Amino acid sequence: MNKLATLHGKRWISRCYSSLSSQSLRVCVVGSGPAGFYTAEKMLKAHQGAEVDIIDRLPTPFGLVRSGVAPDHPETKIVVNQFSRVPLNERCSFFGNVSLGSSVSLSELREMYHVVVLAYGAESDRVLGVPGEDLEGIYSAREFVWWYNGHPDCSDLDPDLKSTDTAVILGQGNVALDVARILLRPTTELAKTDIAEHALASLQESSIRKVYLVGRRGPVQAACTAKELREVLGIKDLYINILESDLSKSAADEEEMKNSRIQRRVYEILSKAARSQPSHPISGQRELHFVFFRRPEKFLHSDDSSGRVTGVRLEKTVLKENSGSGRQSAVGTGQYEDLGCGLVLKSIGYKSVPVDGLPFDHHKGVVPNIRGRVLSNTHTEPLIFENGLYVVGWLKRGPTGIVATNLYCAEETVASISEDLDQGVLTPTLPRPGREGLQQLLDSKGVRFVPFNGWEQIDLKEKSLGSLKNKPREKITRWGELLKAANRESVTEQ
Ligand SMILES: Cc1cc2nc3c(=O)[nH]c(=O)nc-3n(C[C@H](O)[C@H](O)[C@H](O)COP(=O)(O)OP(=O)(O)OC[C@H]3O[C@@H](n4cnc5c(N)ncnc54)[C@H](O)[C@@H]3O)c2cc1C
Ligand SMILES: NC(=O)c1ccc[n+]([C@@H]2O[C@H](COP(=O)([O-])OP(=O)(O)OC[C@H]3O[C@@H](n4cnc5c(N)ncnc54)[C@H](OP(=O)(O)O)[C@@H]3O)[C@@H](O)[C@H]2O)c1
């Protein structure tokens, strides 16, 4: 193409785009967690003509800020004030109770919107793949966290905390620490938080006294961060057990610590805790045991027909350097020991799930992408992108990172969208039905969505229920009641 034609082409695209800007670039963001809200906020700011609709399968917004962040971390939840300002923009709408997959398909969304940004997180679990993983009394941390945070999908989980005094948590990341803290913290302290009523009642009657936090690697590799570790170690009247012998470091450990301030701090805190621990717990005291260099080999159960877990067989491990990666892996030694328990929480990481028509990397558990642009598949050269389809948050990067990480992640995805519009890769010349189209489609399928003011009704109700008990809110934990509080009684859950 000659220079003039290129210039004409660019002018034409930019004319189309600017006329479209005044009409509306139709954008749909799927998922209203941090990644979804940051993306919507950035899109509205960067594209003054854009209309942005956010859909979520729940009647409530905010993703893991509501259903993941621990109830005793209210300061982390303040970010919802910022998110709540986004749908106040007249160019933005929230559609709760609308599930990608069952209420609306990906291809329907892509037909109705110029741009679809997937931000639906990671709502499944990594599996260990060891025998007995499905025994009664074994839960993923995700389910347990959803239960104590009042997610409507887990309000009936009802884990038995009364028939055992010992819980084993597999994994040593921040989620594992959250779960340990909730099990061990005095319930008088939890009672002032927004913990779900059913979970508080169950914890008040809990017999769990000992919690084992089991890591397949050593204290240098514990995946938690310093603030969260200090917090669990600081629980009132808690006996901490860390074996001094686990704290010896290899040259490879020293090298890892040299390169990571977080690992250094975590190791120092663990060492200090090990040095200052009394030799025995006082009678009746709750206990937290850090177990390093052990990986689960199988789950044990009693001979009766209850199918309940009675323990975990652990294999001792040693660390082996992966050449060039700077990472050491756990390798089994063939030596085993059994740890008795009546409750197991697997906290080994979350996992995203694909929907129909979406390219998905099953190995990594993410949507293949480059800077948020969805790749049709990872094996073709040249790379082929899915036009108008983008991804952000845990679905894009995998299940790691704090709330703020999703801000940078959203900036990157929105920058890719803007670049694609500027460069004519994305040419939204034809009008798309967007919001009106979605409403019609949902109507035709009998899906009645919960708008943002429906959520505001839920919010008001929860706060008023909470104020009666000196709690910031009493979460409504059942689908039917949530929809009723949103004035959507006749709505069916999606
Ligand atoms: C237990 C736990 C505790 C955490 N605590 C902290 C903390 O204290 N501080 C901190 O900074 N970070 C914390 N994090 C990390 C933080 O929560 C995540 O980084 C962040 O929530 C990821 O954002 P996201 O938007 O990608 O996913 P999510 O927050 O999971 O949001 C995904 C949204 O998509 C919706 N959705 C799912 N499937 C569909 C579908 N099919 N159709 C429509 N909608 C769908 C979900 O309902 C949800 O609202 C925690 C994480 C966990 C797991
Ligand atoms: N307060 C907060 O800021 C907060 C709170 C909660 C969560 N978060 C964030 O949310 C993200 C997710 O947290 P997470 O704890 O779910 O994940 P994570 O940090 O990735 O930790 C996962 C843990 O599981 C272990 N693990 C993984 N596969 C295993 C296997 N097959 N067998 C045994 N152990 C295995 C890991 O050990 P290896 O290291 O050996 O792989 C690690 O200890 C993190 O980024 C976290 O920081 C933040």
TrEMBL record:
Cofactor(s), names only, from the UniProt record: FAD
Residues bound to FAD: A35, L64, L100, W394
Top class in the EC scheme: oxidoreductase
Alphabetical UniProt keywords: Electron transport, FAD, Flavoprotein, Mitochondrion, NADP, Oxidoreductase, Transit peptide, Transport
Reaction(s) catalysed by this chain's protein: 2 reduced [adrenodoxin] + NADP(+) + H(+) = 2 oxidized [adrenodoxin] + NADPH
GO molecular function: oxidoreductase activity
E.C. numbers: 1.18.1.6
InterPro entries xref list: FAD/NAD-bd_sf, FAD/NAD-binding_dom, Ferredox_Rdtase, Ferredox_Rdtase_adrenod
Pfam family, one: Pyr_redox_2
Location in or out of the cell: Mitochondrion
Binding site for NADP(+): Q172, G173, N174, V175, R216, R217, E228, G401
Domain FAD/NAD(P)-binding: 26-185
Gene Ontology CC annotations of this record: mitochondrion
Residues that span the membrane, as ranges: none
PANTHER family linked to this entry: GLUTAMATE SYNTHASE 1 [NADH], CHLOROPLASTIC-LIKE
Family statement drawn from the similarity comment of this UniProt entry: Belongs to the ferredoxin--NADP reductase type 1 family.
Protein name (database record): NADPH:adrenodoxin oxidoreductase, mitochondrial
Organism: Aquilegia coerulea (Rocky mountain columbine)
Origin organism lineage: Eukaryota, Viridiplantae, Streptophyta, Embryophyta, Tracheophyta
